Amino acid sequence: MLPAPSKLVLPSSRGAGQRWRYTFDRPAADWFAAGFDDFAWPTGPGGFGTKGTPEAVVRTVWDGEHIWLRRHFELSAESLTGERLAELRLLVHHDDEVEIYLNGVPAAEADGFLVDYQSLAISPAALAALQPGDNVLAVYCHQTTGGQYIDVGIVAEASAAALASAAPPLPADAVAAFQTPPERRGKEEQELVKKYRSKLRGLIAKAATAEEQLQVESLRRHIEDVEAEMPPQLPKAYIWTETGVDVPVTQVFHRGNPRDPRGEVGPGVPAILVDSALPPPTPTERSSGRRRQLADWLVRADNPLTARVMVNRIWQHHFGDGLAGSESDFGVMGEAPTHPELLDWLASEFVARGWSMKRMHRLMLLSSAYQMSAAANAAAEQKDPSGELLSRWRPRRLEAEAIRDAVLAASGQLNRERGGESVFPAISPGVLASQSRPGNGWGNSPAEQAARRSVYVFVKRTLLVPELEVLDFPDTNGSCEQRQVSTVAPQALTLLNGDFMQEAARRFAGRLAVEAPDAARRIERAYLLALSRPPNDAERAAVLEFLAKQERQIRADLVAAGQINAEQGAAGEQPDGAAQQALEAFCLVLLNTNEFAYLP
Q: Which of 67, 518, 535, 581 is most enclosed, with most CB atoms within 10 A?
């Protein structure tokens, strides 16, 4: 409801991010109407743009050319009477062209850019369109050159005048901090500069003449051009480090109560794992020595546990199950290894080979156990019905991420770029709508970036990519010692009807049409790309028959729908792309075969 005249009516996002619905894709022509359905638009905090616009607080990145925004707000009947209605003004910060609507009626428009928030008059027609209760503010912004930014609020005249007036001067200590050369600033002065930098820029911008503002803008754009040519920053990561040999005292708190310490406790390891207490750590010039002591104990010669756990994990990665089935429990409650001598030998080899995981991968992959056939014989079946004794190879399904990457690779979409930020593959509006706040926290990566390897896919605890989740992607609420492998109906629905697989089949068929001149060679190429082998004679004949049958059916459907005439269908012409649609259907089937998803 409308507060006192000197207060904000509809806050902008300068102080805190206000929720907006937005889209970067051109919407329907009536997008600004009060009754327009914007439910499918994503939501995000206000302050849309990129860094560089003065006094702009960017909360949602917008780096394209266009953006459309919508937001609902409430007004009371009292706020729409006489003088109080006339006091309302828009509070806008924009870069570049902006159009603003209230309840579908044009309220204001402006071009160019601002260096701070500014109040704009609301058109009489838009003021007349305001109503008690729910109202809609709609905004369109077009970026033409340089940076971009848009944020809009509504204020009463007194509030607009207060915001337009000069801000109070900086505190004396802040002025002194700015006047101190950067290399001589202490920690407190650095904090003051960081705190008041934006405010100082705003004061300078307001005091500058028109000519000085043009000079400032020219310098700002020059800085942006220079920054754009800078090499990308090196990756950053959180790490543990020590500040010296002195370490804080660690107390044992009674029942976890931090106000009830019951005595000091020092570093150590579980007593059940050692015959005697470890000697005190040896400090160095820069470290207490505790971490080095723990690392040395983990890999000492009389502690085989670390090597046994590690090689068991590597074995699990290649064979599906570890030699000890309880990969996270090597204690008395865990499963005994099926081949204890082999596990011990691998552990000793791991240590002897310099703890090199690469050498262990090579050792296991070149072993006869890994190269066994999956075919069983009667004698082995009686002694080893489950295959855990390694009498034969046990086919296993690839992990969800590997299947997604294989689909992208076969269809020619896989982006092999390494490093960088997480990516957000497209998720259907129906899945996004299942969130409490639909679309919240899920980005919109370009198609090329979304096709990067699955290791770069953003993991959101409450929203998983459907094609990964349905293939037993681990529960993000806890650790996962072993991937589950299920076979359930939703897998078929997702892998046959999902948008990701449908698009992959189209791209796969398009790749085949370019790389092979006729149906027979396309079949050959498809098998090589998807299954790494050529088709046999029976498979080749079955696929040719399938393609012909599918093409006839598609043409018949198009004739029945009136999209082509019977002569076109009978003549075998392809203005409708029926042959390509049949090839897409074959590609979809090939990507859903067991041979594609399983290690045979």
A: 67
Query: Tokens 């976890």, residue?
Result: 256
Would you say residue 76 lies in a domain? Answer: yes
Q: Are residues 129 and 154 in the same domain?
A: yes
Confidence (pLDDT) at 210: 66
Cα distance between residue 140 and residue 236, in whole Å: 36
pTM higher than 0.90 for the full model? no
Per-residue model confidence (pLDDT) at position 3: 34
**Are residues 318 and 421 located together in one domain of the fold?**
no
On the question of pLDDT at 333 being above 70, the answer is yes
130 and 177 housed in the same domain: no
Instruction: Write down which residue in 164, 194, 210 finishes a domain.
Output: 164
- The owner of tokens 């708190």 is 253
- Residue 292 contacts by C-beta under 8 Å, 6 or more apart in sequence? 281, 282, 284
Domain encompassing residue 539: 397-600
Chain centroid, CA 594 distance in Å: 29
Give the span between the Cα atoms of 148 and 141, in whole angstroms. 9
List, as one string, the DSSP characters of 272-284: GG-SSPPPPP---
- Alpha carbons within 13 angstroms on the beta-carbon side of residue 235 total 8
Average pLDDT, the chain: 86
